[in-house]
Specification:
It catalyses: guanine + H2O + H(+) = xanthine + NH4(+). By secondary structure, the chain is an alpha/beta fold. Helix content is 39%, strand content 24%. The protein contains 17 helices and 16 strands. The protein is globular and about 65 Å long. The protein starts with a strand and ends with a strand.
């Protein structure tokens, strides 16, 4: 990650939210040049203007005919569930018992954790994802393995040790004190190291005692800059269970708030079954929703109301939620997000979809000053998309007359095959053979 290099192609990024700025949100260079110095964006503009100013000998990677966008940002994924993606036939609570817990048990073995982490990070890059917020397991070694694999690839990774001290199998059950001590040690070891950030990680309110929830809230408060990630209001049966476990709370969200877990950098996956009071509290506290459409559909959880979240002013990112989610591909995730909104009688404009996958995802993680766009000084993570990656894509995009039409074709017809290359910090991290 040193020196000067340039990327040429059709370059697209967002200056803000299309819901606020309309067409002014999108910056488009049909033949653009992105100049990178020491891993950071130095300049962006028309290739015809910038190429003559490059110092002699500067490496220029030519992606003309392809689209260059900021690297995708996945705000909720389980690396330990990689091996159970596409497991048949359950809703979320049964899914945990039948598939998740037995699979996560294997992560007590550091060698197994390392092997899965290596595959997981490679699979993210193969799909154009350069930043992810991920759950590990209760085992500290599972966090070490994921951070080590991400660090080797210079990826930006947010992760943490799962906290569970009740309503889970004995072989995964921690104690409140042990979970707290293990999390503190991992924060000291990894948070802020290179591009790595730590997330305090109670799995969800039903699997933590009030004591553990209080300690998690204290960890979040006592370590400025760390994140908190959990699940919220994914499934109606889950919501009813939480109401029985925490009868004093007004709502599922209120449980987290009572234990000091709402605020900037707290990210809650799903949020399908919230009310307007919940959304207002999330907006007021700066908490974030991770919208996980493939998982919500696959597990039969429900249809997320993106319009209400937007109207309430809640920060929203996109999550694949592998393995309940069915694809590492952010293009496939956008495909399903579009359909979820259709079923709700809403619309997801293509520009807003790609915004949520890039700059919007960065904003939801409070990282838009570092990633998610090609603004000067940002970390130079990018994905190169090939509109002719498959025969059908090539045929469809050949008759497209606008950028929006070509992006929409990629969003509906694209998957990992459409990713020609992924760059991390201004260097190629994966290229399609």
């Amino acid at each position: 990650m040193s020196g000067l290099r340039a990327i040429r192609g059709e370059i697209v990024h967002f200056l803000g939210d299309p819901a606020d700025l309309g067409s002014d949100a999108l910056a488009h260079f049909p033949d653009g040049l992105l100049i990178v110095r020491d891993g950071l964006v130095a300049e962006l503009g028309p290739a015809g203007e910038l190429l003559p100013r490059l110092p002699a000998g500067t490496a220029v990677d030519d992606y003309r005919g392809k689209l260059v966008l900021p690297g995708f940002i996945d705000t909720h994924i389980h690396y330990a569930q990689t091996d159970i993606v596409a497991s048949y036939g359950e809703q979320v609570l049964a899914w945990l018992e039948k598939y998740t817990y037995p699979t996560e048990r294997r992560f007590a073995d550091p060698a197994h954790a390392a092997a899965v982490a290596e595959f997981f990070c490679d699979e993210l890059l193969r799909n154009g994802t350069t930043t992810a917020m991920a759950f590990a397991t209760v085992h500290p070694a599972s966090v070490d393995a994921l951070f080590a694999a991400a660090r080797k690839r210079h990826m930006r990774m947010i992760a943490g040790k799962v906290l569970m001290d009740r309503n889970c199998p004995d072989f995964l059950r921690d104690t409140a004190d042990r979970g707290d001590a293990g999390s503190k040690a991992l924060i000291e070891r990894w948070h802020g190291r290179d591009r790595l950030l730590y997330a305090v990680t109670p799995r969800f309110a039903p699997t933590s005692t009030p004591e553990q929830m209080a300690l998690a809230g204290r960890l979040f408060a006592d370590h400025p800059g760390v994140y908190l990630q959990s699940h919220l209001a994914e499934n109606e049966r889950e919501v009813a269970w939480v109401a029985r476990l925490y009868p004093e709370a007004r709502s599922y969200l209120d449980v987290y708030e009572r234990y000091g877990q709402l605020g900037a950098r707290s990210v809650f996956a799903h949020c399908v079954w919230l009310d307007d009071t919940d959304r207002a509290r999330m907006a007021a506290t700066g908490a974030t929703i991770s919208f996980c459409p493939t998982s919500n559909l696959f597990l039969g959880s429900g249809l997320f109301d993106l319009d209400r979240a937007q109207a309430a002013g809640v920060r929203v990112g996109l999550g694949t939620d592998v393995g309940g989610g069915t694809s590492f591909s952010m293009l496939q995730t956008l495909n399903e997000a579009y359909k979820v909104q259709q079923l709700r009688g809403q619309r997801l404009p293509v520009e807003r979809g790609f915004y949520l996958a890039t700059r919007g995802g960065a904003r939801s993680l409070y990282l838009d000053d570092r990633i998610g766009s090609f603004d000067t000084g940002r970390e130079a993570d990018l994905v190169v998309l090939d509109p002719a990656a498959t025969p059908l894509l090539a045929r469809r995009t050949a008759v497209a007359t606008t950028l929006a039409e070509r992006l929409f074709a990629l969003m509906l017809l694209g998957d990992d095959r459409a990713v020609a290359a992924t760059w991390v910090m201004g260097e190629p991290a994966w290229r399609r053979p």
